[in-house]
Amino acid sequence: METKSTSRYFLRNRKKNLSKLESRAIEERLNHLESTVKPDWTTRISNLSQVAMLGVVLYGYIFTVIPVVQKEQIAEKLAQLEIEKQHWSSQLLNIKKVLDEKQSDLVELNKQMISTRTEIYNLKTERENILSSLKSKSSELDKVNKSLISAKRSITIAQNNLAKQIENQILGEDVISDSYLSVLEPYTKTVKFTGEAGFMGLPDAKMLWLPTDKDYTNSFINEFSQISPKATLDILINELTEKLKHTDGIENNALKYIVGKYISAKKNKNKELNCPTLPLDEWKATYNSIDTILYDFTNRCVDKTMFKFKELGTYSSQKLHSDYYKSSCNTAINYEIARFLTRKWKDALSPCKERVTRLNEIVLKGLEREQLTPFEDLRPPSTELIRTHMNHYVENNNFFHFDENNSSM
What we know:
The chain is built from 14 helices and two strands; from the N terminus they run H-H-H-H-H-H-H-H-H-H-H-H-H-H-E-E. By secondary structure, it is mainly alpha-helical.
């Protein structure tokens, strides 16, 4: 069989080198030979024995070798599993130990949790008690605040009333302090009249600005100290500040409020509290130059009187009394010049005096500059203005009483 196969193999391989007819003939002959050859029993038995041997080998391999190998593999695996078992047992022991520790920690945590819950409960109870107490205290505080507000309102009203009362006292309802009045003394001297009727209806008290009394007026001018609203304000601030040292409570607060007004006015009321200074040297020079005016208008008075006597035809008899008429004219002209200068002096000082006398109104009532008398020219009247006034005075006045029978004063 093997030979046949080999022959066919070689034949097939040779087919490539032979022609188709040759190869076909050879193949047919081989087939014929195979069909004619009979089988050999020994060969068959040999083949069967080989097959049986193969089966025995397979059986032995399957039922002997394989189980032994598998047993060895299983033993090896069992050894590995034993090693792993020991490893995992160690791991399990460690895990169990850790678990026991965690269990112990958990028990401790449970205890702490119970303790914390108890503490939280106690704190909650304490908080509720505190809130309840706080609510009660808050209610009490509201009542106290209402009482304080009411008391504060009452104190404020009382303080305002007291401040108003003190303001009213300062504004004139009570006696003004001597130090405040003393500021007005320099001005008072300039216009002081007794009001008592004297010669020709004039006061007997000595008047300023009389041309015939130079010593008195010049002495007054030399000693004159002009009134000042700011100086007066300082006096009042000092008086009130000194009074603060002897007061407390509501009265002290009221005085502080008023002192604050005065101090504020000193800073913010400069326009209302400022007085320009009089040019005293000019006044003195003008006053000392009016002798000529007195002489001239005394003569005009005498001339007017004598002219009237001439009109009445009594000049000759009245001429004998010329000295009397001259003396009377001199007195009348002297006092009229004094009146005129006094009025101009008062007009120059009046705005400043007003600011002193109304100082408390400026501070406490907020008087503005527009509500006060404005300052005019503070210089003395010129000699021309004095002459104009005296000319008008002489022309429009009869210094004596005249009748048709006789003329006399």
